[in-house]
Amino acid sequence: MERLPKRQRHQQLSRLIEENPFLTDRELTRLLKVSIQTIRLDRLELAIPELRERLKMMAERSYDSVRSLPLHEVIGDIVDLQLDKSGISLFEIRDEHVFSRTGIARGHHVFAQANSLAVAVINDEVALTASADIRFIRPARLGEKCIAKAYVRSSGSQKGKAKVEVFTYVGDEMVFQGNFVIYRSAGVTEAGGGEAHENRH
Amino acid sequence: MERLPKRQRHQQLSRLIEENPFLTDRELTRLLKVSIQTIRLDRLELAIPELRERLKMMAERSYDSVRSLPLHEVIGDIVDLQLDKSGISLFEIRDEHVFSRTGIARGHHVFAQANSLAVAVINDEVALTASADIRFIRPARLGEKCIAKAYVRSSGSQKGKAKVEVFTYVGDEMVFQGNFVIYRSAGVTEAGGGEAHENRH
DNA sequence: CCGGTCATTGGCACCAGGTATCAATATGAA
DNA sequence: TTCATATTGATACCTGGTGCCAATGACCGG
Questions:
Q1: Does domain A4-67 have CATH number 1.10.10.10?
Q2: Residues of B in contact with A126 (CB under 8 A)
Q3: What pLDDT is attached to residue A63?
Q4: Which of A158, B51, B57, B106 has an alpha carbon 20 to 30 Å from B83's alpha carbon atom?
Q5: A70-184 in CATH: which number?
Q6: Confidence band, pLDDT 50/70/90 cuts, at residue B140
Q7: Domain spans of chain A?
Q8: pLDDT band (50, 70, 90) for residue B199
Q9: Euclidean distance between the first and final Cα of chain A, in Å?
Q10: A124 to chain B: which residues are within 8 Å by CB?
């Protein structure tokens, strides 16, 4: 008995299903040239669930992520907010935020947390980022919890610009620092490429 | 015959399935207090596919979006790249990039395009954003095509820092401008919060 | 050569969650 | 009453499986 074929087939099976989870057992028989029973035994050994379960898992995952992705709104959980004064937000670096080769968070996520907070802390109908001066002090890595603290330095409470300083820490290490200038003016649509915010109290 | 109940039920059915696509017909009978045949006639009239088809569609959608989201790698299509000199990338503002209320692109996407390009244009094993000074000149809006142009100003070809200037246009209007300082050094993991890049030629 | 152990295959019953179709009943309006 | 529509019931069939039992093949040690 060639013992190899089985291990090889298992590897192939895993690979096939990983790169196309929509394959039925019947389709797999054609690809691997073994009986459907063998396919099923293999799936059993490899703990690969049946097609319908795979689809369900994918659907659930995407459903959850749609529900849990305020990625398009504010990035990071804002845990404290004193309008026109200061704010704090938390953001955990997860798989989807890092560059897989190095485990280092992509810069724009760290930036986005700070930017979201800077915009949220401004007490106006619409707030847009006008400019920013940012520094990545050290890389944030997979699993780290980033704590961003924003301080409004110059509120410009009449319509105009506000300056917001943001510091992002992992533990007591600073990973990011940024100075943001935020346009504040209801209905402004001509300047600023940032986002309006939803965090009105 | 109460004609309303049917329309009402149809509305309820649509709403129920929209907010929980994982419901089987049997579960729906309990929720709507009608027979399973009625549920099936209703789905037929409303063109709501069966559970398994719904799950499959969701799985396909999420699978496609995983495939088509280079969102985690380089943002924007790099159409021209002269290492250590200059580069051009294109990025179209789509639904998922804008703040729905205003149709204005979220700042971090515009930033991310520029950041990705600044990192890509640097000819080194690993390149990380160290700092940046950015300006959002005017908002980018849904449907607009952003053209980012990067110029390496000070290459620092020995290991160290490189300065990259990026201008982003929509048509001939400038929407964004940024000065990036990029760390260049193989194996550097102590500074820079940006991303290493995949665009080696 | 013989038995033992895997690996592979076949066959059958069964299941969920349906589709498709036909028939029976209820209900209300003309 | 009669007709149309709505609802329900019943049955056959489908896909993509699980679970179980049995038959066959291959190889190895004694």
A1: yes
A2: 102
A3: 77
A4: B106
A5: 3.10.129.10
A6: very high
A7: 4-67, 70-184
A8: very low
A9: 71
A10: none
Three-state secondary-structure class, residue A174: strand
Q: Which residues of A touch B189 (CB under 8 A)?
A: 102, 104, 139
The per-residue pLDDT for A122 is 87
Domain A4-67 and domain A70-184, same fold? Reply is: no
Task: Name the residue among B105, B175, B193 with its Cβ closest to that of A175.
Answer: B193
Q: Do B138 and A105 touch (CB under 8 A)?
A: no
pLDDT of residue A65 exceeding 70, the answer is no
Q: Which of A62, A134, A176 sits opposite B62 (nearest CB)?
A: A62
CA separation for the pair B68, B192 (Å, rounded): 27
pLDDT over 90 percentage in chain A: 50
For all residues of chain B together, what is the average pLDDT? Answer: 82
Q: What is the pLDDT of residue A149?
A: 96
Nucleotide nearest the Cα atom of A35 (by C1'): C9
Q: Tell which CATH architecture fits domain B72-184.
A: Roll (3.10)
- Of A4 and A30, the structure prediction assigns the larger pLDDT to A30
What is the 3-class SS of A29-90, one letter each residue? HHHHCCCHHHHHHHHHHHCCCCHHHHHHHHHHHHHHHHHHCHHHCCCCEEEEEECCCEEEEE
Would you state the CATH architecture of domain B4-68? Orthogonal Bundle (1.10)
Cα separation values, A77 from A106, B134, B178, B186, Å: 18, 25, 28, 34
Per DSSP, the three-state class of A193 is: coil
Contacts with B112 from chain A: Cβ below 8 Å: 106-108, 111
Enumerate the nucleotides of strand C whose atoms come under 7 Å of any protein CB: 6-11, 16-21, 27-29
**pLDDT one-digit tens code per residue, B25-43:** 999 999 999 999 999 999 9
Closest CA to A139 of B165, B32, B27, B193: B193
| Measured distance CA(B98)–CA(B94) in Å, rounded | 7
Q: Which residues touch strand D (CB under 7 A)?
A: A 1-2, 24-26, 37, 40, 43-44, 49-52; B 1, 3, 5-6, 9, 34-35, 37-38, 41
* Separation between the CA of B4 and the C1’ of D15 (whole angstroms): 37
Q: Which residue has the higher pLDDT, B161 or A192?
A: B161
